Amino acid sequence: MQFSPGKYFVLIIMLIALSAPRIFAKVGHGDLEKVVDGVTISLSFMDEDAHLGTNSAIISLMDAGHNAIERARVTVVAEMSGTMEDRGHSEMKPPVLLQAEPQGDHDKGQYMAMINLSDEGKWKITVKVSTEGEERSADFAIEVMHAGPDWKIILGFLAINTVIIVAAAINRKKKNRSLPNG
Questions:
Q1: 82 to each of 62, 87, 122, 123, how far by Cα in Å?
Q2: Residue-range domain boundaries for the chain
Q3: Please, what are the averages of pLDDT over each run of 10 residues along the chain (182 residues)?
Q4: Hey, what CATH topology would domain 32-144 get?
């Protein structure tokens, strides 16, 4: 069975299509959501994932009827979780307490806080919500990792490139065999 260059191209495209969801999958936290006493508290980050340094965190509040909760007092507490040995630090860092500010008229029920995640490791983000005299609190666990290369993506592209190069080499070798020696 002889493959033409067009068949190799189709085969390569199929391999890329099959592997693309794994290669381009979003890795990280995305949106985090908890329901506390009928109130849905969501935490997300503007850059999709939490990273070392300053992060723009968005807190969304919805009541049981899926209506945005406005005029809430929202406080965010960020602290490293785990023991000092887990963190590799000799000193305990105090939790960071922040007020979240409303996002304005166009994003009702959304509040923003700037969170500085100063170290790699596991963090506990506590969102405290006060509405109409009622206090609610939700804890979110996130992990801040070193911002190095994403090896899954690199290895995926390496595998795809290898397949393309091997297919081209096989095709060229077959063409050279079919030429008459002269």
A1: 30, 7, 7, 8
A2: 5-25+150-178, 32-144
A3: 63 60 41 89 87 89 93 91 55 68 73 90 93 92 76 83 88 76 58
A4: Immunoglobulin-like (2.60.40)
